[in-house]
Amino acid sequence: MTALHRPGGGASAGGAAARQPILETGPRLAMCALLQSAKWVDFATVRDLLGVSDPMVSKHSRTLEDAGLLEVRKGAVGRRPKTWFRLTPVGRTTLQSHLAWLTGLGSAVEPDT
Question: What pLDDT, on a 0 to 100 scale, did the predictor assign at position 9?
Answer without folding.
Answer: 39
